[in-house]
Amino acid sequence: MFRCGECGWEAAKWVGRCGECQVWGSVAEVGAPALRVAPGAVTTKAVPIGDVAVEAATSVSSGVSELDRVLGGGLVPGAVILLAGEPGVGKSTLLLEVAAQTARSGRRTLYVSGEESASQVRLRADRTGAVEAELYLAAETDLGAVLTHIEDTQPALLVIDSVQTIGTSDSDGVPGGVSQVKEVAAALVRTAKTHNITTILVGHVTKDGSIAGPRVLEHIVDVVLNFEGSRESRLRMVRSMKNRFGPVDEVGCFDLSSDGIVPVTDPTGLFLEARTIPVSGTCVAVTMEGRRPLVAEVQALVSAQETEKPRRATSGLDSSRLALILAVLQRDRRLRLSSRDVFAATVGGMRLLDPAADLAVAIALASSFSEVAVPTGVVAIGELGLAGQLRRVRDINARLDEAARLGFTHAIVPADTNSSLKKRPGLEILEAFSLPDVLDALRFRQ
After folding, report:
1. Which structural domain, as residue segments, surrounds residue 4?
2. Where in the numbering of this chain does the RecA family profile domain appear (predicted)?
3. Binding site for ATP: what residues are annotated?
């Protein structure tokens, strides 16, 4: 602040002449006084960490098995969970099912809808069978009204759909703005911790897929979940991005239909294309989503016509990772891919971010270029280095167990003398040191 030394007039920036007494040169900057905080009363006395009771923080099942898997066991009392996803992906349907299952177990649940009316939510609850006596519903957009509902109902689970639609008159801006979201989220977090209420906040996402609003929103909550899915597929996946009570990067799978949303405990078959005749340009990889091994099929198409400006298109794969694999394959002069269009995709809308899928992508590209099909019983596991060497991957035995369970007969893995590979009946393990060794063994050279 800047203050006039003659009359005390204040201004936000320096001026040469006082706007009140019209005296020149009397306005000077005033430093903020040093803040001194006196000791205050404490809420709870500090005790040794070994004497802190953990029973109050024991997780309770949400009634949805796949969500419990992602959360690390269930809903923790007093925890604040942020669930974000694109519009129409099924966030409200999933949380209405969680609210109904919680109410069905005898624990009171409050569902606050800021985007739909109460009658609209009731229609969806009738369709999905989520009408329960202990499930309370309120349509509010004011933070004060939401806090009043919480005091009146005393719920064990609180669902806010969504945090961007709730506003308060105590903060500047419109609902969904930075200041409003910060104030609303902070108030809900304080209420959750004070009353020991499990709170689930629905969050919007931006065009690039990141969570909308200030970054502090992700810091103050305990769990951040990302709800993913394609409009062309019924498969939905909940991915854990932050979890103070369980594993990170765990994944839960769901099937979304007109009758509601149901967990998919064994989603491996959704990412494979059922066929008996081998087709060129396909290969099967075993990826790890959290602690769960998933078998996914990779498909590639290398056009036969050479073009001046070749296209590179991906679906479910990282485009930069595909460029790396193409560069490694291009080192082999017999695989001329630089002037050809390349298309690579996964089956079932699966997103393959695991580097262990590099070998399967490379085999699919070489198979399409050479027009030589990979045998149907082969899976490929391995990370590809820039020099073409195969690097070892984590949880190799868990991946091989899943491949053997699904009936695959051959598995191509990196040659690693430090890891002890277990023998499995019906599954032959082929170890390779580099990508050229694999291509020569599969006869993909022309």
Report:
1. 1-31
2. 56-205
3. 85-92
